[in-house]
């Protein structure tokens, strides 16, 4: 059973998501919060698999709530997914840097929303990779970060290749095909890269790939 915590300051949004999620046999909403501070407290109480948090809320916003959850070692298995609108792109990179596993736009189709929650619970793929790449390409800092570039030197050539493919939005099976290796080996490369780069999850690997210049956003 996938346990989900909803954090949004709009009761109508929360009730809509809750109805959709609780209708599924394999998903259960453990609780709701109307602000980021309560969301962090409830995450510590319930330790859900997935926290869906609105990026903009009064007081403690979604980015700060994400940062607090990601920084808590007792919540290392919790995957935070940020809820946003298309008009709020500037917040997304901040959320990923804070430790979010990915994000969803609020006008997503119900079936895609449910699939994304399941993917987030597994922790094996970045959500909405095409949208994520587009936003990171728009807002990532240039020139490349010296710190991120230095960190990449700890990786082997194959690990760097795997990280670059993660940044393209590929899942482990697709990375295995591109690199002509087994899915298990692909996962090993990614896990070792995450350890060496002190990345919480694949989302942070994407940020590092762009910030280091390993992956270069296309020029518009």
Automatic annotation (TrEMBL):
Modification 4-aspartylphosphate, positions: 54
Residues in HTH luxR-type domain copies: 148-213
Keyword presence, DNA-binding: yes
GO biological process assignments: phosphorelay signal transduction system; regulation of DNA-templated transcription
Gene3D superfamilies to which the protein is assigned, alphabetical: 3.40.50.2300
GO MF assignments: DNA binding
Domain Response regulatory: 3-121
Pfam families, per the entry: GerE, Response_reg
This protein's record includes keyword Protein transport: no
Alphabetic keyword roster: DNA-binding, Phosphoprotein, Transcription, Transcription regulation
Name listed for the protein in its UniProt record: DNA-binding response regulator
Natural source organism: Dactylosporangium matsuzakiense
């Amino acid at each position: 059973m996938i346990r989900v915590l909803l954090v949004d300051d709009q009761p109508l949004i929360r009730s809509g998501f809750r109805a959709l999620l609780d209708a599924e046999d394999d998903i259960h909403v453990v609780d709701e919060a109307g602000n980021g501070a309560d969301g962090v407290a409830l995450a510590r109480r319930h330790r859900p698999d997935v926290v869906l948090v609105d990026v903009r809320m009064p007081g403690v916003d979604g980015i700060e709530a994400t940062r607090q959850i990601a920084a808590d070692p007792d919540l290392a298995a919790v995957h935070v997914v940020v809820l946003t609108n298309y008009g709020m792109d500037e917040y997304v990179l901040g959320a990923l840097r804070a430790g979010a596993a990915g994000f969803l736009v609020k006008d997503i189709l119900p079936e895609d929303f449910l699939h994304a929650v399941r993917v987030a619970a597994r922790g094996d793929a970045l959500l909405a990779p095409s949208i994520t790449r587009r936003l990171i390409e728009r807002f990532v800092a240039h020139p490349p970060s010296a710190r991120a570039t230095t960190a990449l030197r700890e990786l082997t050539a194959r690990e760097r290749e795997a990280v670059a493919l993660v940044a393209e939005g590929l899942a482990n099976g697709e990375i295995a095909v591109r690199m002509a290796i087994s899915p298990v080996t692909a996962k090993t490369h990614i896990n070792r890269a995450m350890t060496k780069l002190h990345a919480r999850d694949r989302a942070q690997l994407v940020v590092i790939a762009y910030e280091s210049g390993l992956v270069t956003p296309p020029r518009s």
